[in-house]
Design goal:
The protein is α/β, with parallel strands linked by helices. It contains nine helices and ten strands. It is globular. It binds tricarbonodiimidic diamide. Tricarbonodiimidic diamide (TIU) binds next to helix 7.
Length: 228
């Protein structure tokens, strides 16, 4: 089925596609989380919750596979590069006590996915130590084993974990459709440019479309029952 997209229509194959929802975690999205603690406007990310809920509901209703990711580290921080720990040069960094538990540490409240988009049993959750979802995870193996070659990508933030993951996927041969209103950045201009970078040059990294176009393509069409 063809989805109207930029820079041209995305040919969605229901037998070979997964929805990949990137890092919709409490520490990034909730007031009082790590992102807010750093002075970021979480409203820029929270506007993506409702569109993601609508897309996720339609996707699940269509019986298509969903994969979630979370950025975070082992409690002993053995998978946290010292360079990432030091980055930001602030008094509180990854692994320290934050407003919703230890920051970006697996098992802590702030690390978990927001309740509005919580994974269902059977939906894989990829715990990733980096910005890209392929680096140091089993995502590639899961996609390969399930015959998935297309990714519909949503989540936060557009220019960081979404862009890094789409670039990783593109180099591995996956076709990525990024859902514009289901992605967000603390910086609106980075969101805009992050999307433009994906679809530029004939879709150098992939395609971009609004959630409505994806939902319209996967929703079962109303059956014509004939004239009364
Ligand atoms: N998930 C993700 O994008 N992690 C970040 O650290 N993003 C920022 O924009 N900081």
């Amino acid at each position: 089925m063809a989805i109207p997209a930029e820079p041209y229509a995305f040919e969605l194959r229901p037998d070979a596609v997964a929805l990949l929802i990137i890092d919709m975690q409490r520490d990034f999205l909730e007031p009082g989380g790590f992102g807010a603690m750093l002075g970021n406007d979480v409203g820029q990310l929270r506007r993506t919750i409702a569109p993601n809920q609508a897309l996720l509901a339609a996707w699940r209703a269509a019986g298509l596979p969903v994969i979630h990711t979370r950025e975070g580290h082992r409690p002993d921080l053995s998978d946290l590069p010292p360079a990432k720990k030091a980055r930001g040069n602030g008094p509180t960094t990854i692994g320290d006590a934050g407003p919703m538990g230890r920051i970006l540490v697996r098992g802590e409240p702030g690390h978990d996915i927001i309740p509005e988009l919580y994974p269902l049993p059977g939906e894989p959750v990829i715990d990733k130590p980096g910005k890209g979802a392929f680096f140091a995870t089993d995502l590639h193996a899961i996609l390969h084993n399930r015959g998935i070659s297309q990714l519909v990508v949503t989540g936060v933030t557009t220019e960081v974990c979404v862009n890094t993951t789409v670039r990783e996927a593109n180099d591995r041969g996956f076709d990525c459709l990024v859902v514009a209103d289901c992605c967000g950045s603390y910086f609106p201009e980075f969101h805009e440019m992050g999307l433009r970078m994906i679809k530029a040059q004939g879709g150098i990294f992939g395609w971009v479309a609004p959630s409505g176009a994806v939902i319209a393509a996967i929703e079962p069409k109303t059956q014509y029952k004939g004239a009364a």
